[in-house]
Amino acid sequence: FHTLTPFCFLRFLRFSSLCSNHHFCVKSFSLPGLRSQELCGIFFDFLGKMSAILQRAGAATALSPINSTDSNRLVAPCRSSLSVRSKRHIVAGSDGIKSFTCGLKARRSEPLIAKAVATKADNAASSTSSNSGHELLLFEALQEGLEEEMDRDAHVCVMGEDVGHYGGSYKVTKGLADKFGDLRVLDTPICENAFTGMGIGAAMTGLRPVIEGMNMGFLLLAFNQISNNCGMLHYTSGGQFTIPVVIRGPGGVGRQLGAEHSQRLESYFQSIPGIQMVACSTPYNAKGLMKAAIRSENPVILFEHVLLYNLKETIPDEEYVCNLEEAEMVRPGEHITILTYSRMRYHVMQAAKTLVNKGYDPEVIDIRSLKPFDLYTIGNSVKKTHRVLIVEECMRTGGIGASLTAAINENFNDYLDAPVMCLSSQDVPTPYAGTLEEWTVVQPAQIVTAVEHLCH
User: Fold this and answer.
1) Distance (Å, rounded) from C-alpha 155 to C-alpha 74?
2) Domain named Transketolase-like pyrimidine-binding: which ranges (predicted)?
3) In the chain, N or C: fewer CB atoms in 10 Å?
């Protein structure tokens, strides 16, 4: 393990990907009570943790340099140089660009763009002219943000099922493997527990992994890794480790994928300490939140809705980063505050048109940050309108809306003229049939009825 640097670590794990691609399996290698996938997960997580712990304990007193002319690719040290222990950093190329830093202190990320600039860009996103911007679909905006961060920071890598030359299940990683190589864009075996643990271990050694779940529902197979390791390791290690991991992927209702592939995991993950959660809803904030999540020192889960990937918008040519903890004012109003996120933002805006025709003036806020809530923006709106409607696609029982309702009642109860109302998905498994599928989620007509009820 004394030579298990981040480079060697990823190179070793590349073997597991090759095995998967050539239909090898580990069914013949098992222990009583353990499935082969669980065994892989334990093994990969163990390697990642051992690498970080031994480096911090001083087992590896030095690391060998890298002889590479491409600073965008992760290349393992030459075998002949493994015995060289005179340096503490792995360096890519002769230009002095550090590819990895494995010192005792956690590497600090670059500060985000000034909050005022991000806020100004947020407000101007919908009115950006074609002269100063370019049109992108939402999945293309995610890809552009990811590519820019991989160009900016050689620590950033991507791992998941089919994220390499196939480009991901929804093409968010398309073209990245050709540009950055198959070590920075790593195809993994079909074992969420294994590659999530691999990403967490890699983050402990200095990388900044972006882990893609082919479908967010599959990440239930990695729940132990996300909960006990990703979320809690910073605390349980006494601050010795930071876990700058981004976990992202598609989810939500609307493609007739059935109960197992239409789950909304926000409610599952919100109770895990140490994890931030954000949900994108436009190409603009998709790119900005992706970049911010990668730069964060905290583990961040980025939720993407399958029905929004082909949404098109003009975004600025200049670099911008969204605030991970800031809500977005979508429509100012006076009569009622409607809080929503992700796909439901568009159901709310459709309902708002009907409400305006009926004489109501709703204020619509896309909360974006699902954990923690932006109580400053929400509170200012509640103090102005005195009525709150929450619209979500999450399940009603134990959902984001329930937590947000509690937060509003605890902090702004004196400003409310009516009880907080929450419209959520039905507490039923999502049907395959399209008509039944739509019946389980909130529709614009229900939003109109709820606003009329609260305002009277």
Assistant:
1) 9
2) 136-311
3) C
